Amino acid sequence: MTTINERIEALRAKMKANNIDAFIIPSSDPHQSEYVCDYWKVRVWFSGFTGSAGTLVVTQNEAAMWTDGRYFLQVEDQCADTCVELYKQQIPHAPEHIPWLAEVLNENAVIGIDYRQFSKSQYDYIQCLTSEKNIETKNYPHLLGEIWQDRPELPSDEVKIHPIEFSGESTASKLNKVKAEIKNQKANYYFLSSLDDIAWLFNIRSTDIDFTPLVTAYALVGEEKTYLFSDTSRYNSKTIEIFKQLNVEVLNYDLIAEKLPILSEGKIIVTDAASLNYASFDGIKGEIIFQQSLVQQLKAVKNEVEIENTKKCMLKDGVALTRFYMWLEETLENQELSEYEIGKKLTSYRAEQPLYKDDSFSSIVGYKGNGAIIHYSAPKEGSAMVKKENLLLIDSGGQYENGTTDITRTVWLGGEISDEIKTAYTSVLKGHIELDQMKFPKGTIGIQLDAFARMHLWKQGLNFPHGTGHGIGSYAMVHEPTQGFAGNLATSRGTEAHKPNQFTTIEPGCYKKDTYGIRIENVVVSKELETNSFGTFYGFEAITVFPIDTQLIDKKLLIPSEINWLNNYHKKVYEIISPKLKPSEKDWLKEKCKEI
Amino acid sequence: MTTINERIEALRAKMKANNIDAFIIPSSDPHQSEYVCDYWKVRVWFSGFTGSAGTLVVTQNEAAMWTDGRYFLQVEDQCADTCVELYKQQIPHAPEHIPWLAEVLNENAVIGIDYRQFSKSQYDYIQCLTSEKNIETKNYPHLLGEIWQDRPELPSDEVKIHPIEFSGESTASKLNKVKAEIKNQKANYYFLSSLDDIAWLFNIRSTDIDFTPLVTAYALVGEEKTYLFSDTSRYNSKTIEIFKQLNVEVLNYDLIAEKLPILSEGKIIVTDAASLNYASFDGIKGEIIFQQSLVQQLKAVKNEVEIENTKKCMLKDGVALTRFYMWLEETLENQELSEYEIGKKLTSYRAEQPLYKDDSFSSIVGYKGNGAIIHYSAPKEGSAMVKKENLLLIDSGGQYENGTTDITRTVWLGGEISDEIKTAYTSVLKGHIELDQMKFPKGTIGIQLDAFARMHLWKQGLNFPHGTGHGIGSYAMVHEPTQGFAGNLATSRGTEAHKPNQFTTIEPGCYKKDTYGIRIENVVVSKELETNSFGTFYGFEAITVFPIDTQLIDKKLLIPSEINWLNNYHKKVYEIISPKLKPSEKDWLKEKCKEI
Fold this sequence. Notes:
Two copies of one chain form a homodimer.
Chain A: H1 4-17, E1 22-25, H2 42-47, E2 55-59, E3 63-67, H3 72-78, E4 85-88, H4 97-104, E5 110-113, H5 120-130, E6 136-139, H6 143-147, E7 160-161, H7 164-167, H8 171-184, E8 189-192, H9 195-202, E9 204-205, E10 218-222, E11 226-229, H10 237-245, E12 248-251, H11 256-264, E13 268-271, H12 278-283, E14 287-290, H13 294-300, H14 304-332, E15 337-338, H15 339-351, E16 356-359, E17 364-367, E18 385-386, E19 391-396, E20 398-400, E21 403-404, E22 407-412, H16 419-436, E23 439-441, H17 446-459, E24 469-471, E25 480-485, H18 492-495, E26 503-506, E27 509-512, E28 516-519, E29 522-532, E30 535-542, H19 560-577, H20 583-592
Parallel strand pairs in A: 1-5, 3-4, 5-6, 8-13, 11-12, 13-14
Antiparallel strand pairs in A: 1-2, 2-3, 7-9, 8-10, 10-11, 15-18, 16-20, 17-19, 19-22, 20-21, 23-30, 24-25, 26-29, 27-28, 29-30
Helix pairs in contact in A: 4-5, 14-15, 16-17
């Protein structure tokens, strides 16, 4: 069975046999993960569409791919010559297919889903919109797998303990914090579904998901005994022994369906509604207390060991980027390079660094107008050819065993720079500096801080269509909740107050369609600066160390404090990276770090 | 019956006779007004406490005055020698007395209230907390009045038409907008309780409330016929005739209780939950659609006539303040003046201006440490004596028949200025300028803009404990919804997006207890600046015209664009005000407006 149309027809046959009128296939896994492992790429397999966001809805007459504006062209391209049709979402991530289904389905129809792929609130939304027509939503956890016969296995690589020299806190200590909250809530268990929460809490890492060293698992933390649902074959005997000492029993992943109802019967369970899937909700037979994940809150505040190790990763990134950009400049003197091969070369320079495991996301290498495509991914075949002229935006990062990095630099490769680009670049830089050196009272939330990164762009009639920054993990997710900088209240990045010792990116930009893309991104760590009669004040310290291109700056637009910031930053960059460099590399870096 | 204790005892006797276990007496009127007329000052009459916020709860054993930190001292002072005891609220305006009541009352107890003084959500909150004990909340609209035998009458002054030369839009045109919304909602009526909404919609003004020219009324706007519940004796025959032409029938205020159930029976009514009292909610016999008041939204955007007239009022304020501050400087050369008499003198200078009706609030005249008390009101007896030294903060405003003003200036009266005060003052000024000259995209909300007024204070480890600004009416309320600048999301001032042609105050400050208070406040009008491919951008224009004290500025802390802003502002101030001044006044103003 090879073609998309054959797959859809097979699904329709199964639907008919089971009296299912519509089947919804979303992009998600059972853990509401940002990226999913191959096993959960069901929507990709049934539609051919590989974008990160989209939902396929199949009826006997339609195969509707719902996605947002970022992916219209990609769907039209990848789903051409199939029965899959593009349905345009007005708002990214909005479940606009549900009202559509409620409209097209008849009274008493049946919708099929895999409960594991839907959160409780998503399920409730379907119920709410379809109850008037008495439409039923039923669970078919095996139906898609019966059709997808060569479906990949669930990840099976070894699960490794993330050592205390990198984590900085023992599993016992972390579990005690969760147990204290269980007691505080007068509950019996804390149930966790988020893979990053579980990886942090148990200090475990593996290779389950591209770019992210997480482990496929559920966890039920009890005051006495704790259950980790994760295939036992993935743990060596030493790890099993360590967990036994902590009263943690490892049970196979699939046992969750059988054990959760038994263990939860008559008990009180604390859990986070945002990551809980409907199958787990349905499986919990006790009382549920919903709470924003405590582990998410704990994990967002880094300890001294994590901070020191991440600084070491930033140094490694700085060395790799120095070598990469030197190579790029030299090579462009004699030849053109495709965006795709530039991305591969960058990965190879990072991979030379100690403890490198992977990139932290698929590098964005955007030349000229491609830099304006926020989530651009240069195709293997036919990506743009880069010459020694104009703007090149590169957003990239590494997963090292001792930390995670994320950096964007926009560089001028040659030729005369227009005033328009200088003004935009300098305004982005001013916004970056404004937020970096801001001092703000305890309680200040993301949307307030976000404004400082935009103000200098706004004054020029410019802006950018994304948040200013996100939390970042420690050898974990590159986009980590909860805090960040966003210009709206729709996510925790806008509403969450910053606390000391959090890692957050500062990445304002400016984009003109088909013309240019500019972004300057550092990771900062937050810290307490001062407590006086007016309150407690926090601030940031940049820990990313790599020069910011000064050719693109219109110095007239900078005030003295901004010039000082830039010169001090470059002084720090040189002091930190240069001891690790060869003489020729030092010279190159010195030139890039010279005072303006 | 004269003492507070006798009043409480009389209330307790009535409660006993009616089997009421607790009576709640809030500060509010039936329209959720910010200030209330004398008739509704029931909480003041029963307790002796005159502060703006507080709720008296009377049982057979207790007379509990619940208020927040601003008023602890005042309650202790005004309620000394009475049976009224202070109960400290942790959070201003929070109904912390309800959980307390739910605790102290027995099963099946009865709470008495006047339904008109409670919004639906306040009533629901009582129900929610007391239902477990089967406590009943009953309506006693006459009980307090039976005890308060010399209770003032409801306002009876003539209701005047606010002429089109000042309002800029006819009642017919405004009513048509409401009728369009009724149609849009497929409803029959729009019900209005807010006095400022009603004053705007019907273009009526009177003297019902101190400092605010509103009319006590309810309105039921129908697609065909409209009812204005407001005592007919207050309208002359010409006004009645104008309304008749518009199919508006004026019915006596008290008839609302009888007519609302009849008119609403079987109908669909749109109304705003925030201003609807529980008596009206109870009286509506049809279906209710809750909606943030459309009139509030319409009213917040001013028309050209309102803008031009308000600018004229700003000029009048500027002339009055020039004369006042000249008098102040001259008088202090030879004598000391009390804060109270300074406030009276300022009122007298405003009163000399054409179309002056009243002050727009009770002037705040705070000398030295008194300036740090945000809602300071200098007492008639024993207010601080002002000498020709140190800081004087004056926040004041006028109600003119063609507009409403609100301005704060902080001036140095003599002696050497400390670096601490210069830094604080200059940081307040920088914040004021930053927000005044900000350019921001459509959709930007109050909490984002508020941050710009604080950033320069934050950088110095300073801050201020109030919002940065509020909407302001046009010969209406000095604190007008919906937009503003606030550092939190608890009010619409933080969450509402700014639109062109709104009046908002910019008033950052800095306060050190017992030491100094600094605030610099202008009114600005918002306007569209530019539309380009990055979006539509708005900005502000200051319309308050009076010099900002330059003695207090530490010029080293200003950047060139800030110095330009200040010099341009002073140039504009002089150009606008000076033609209305006598030669000696012109000289004084010229000196105050000279370039720095």
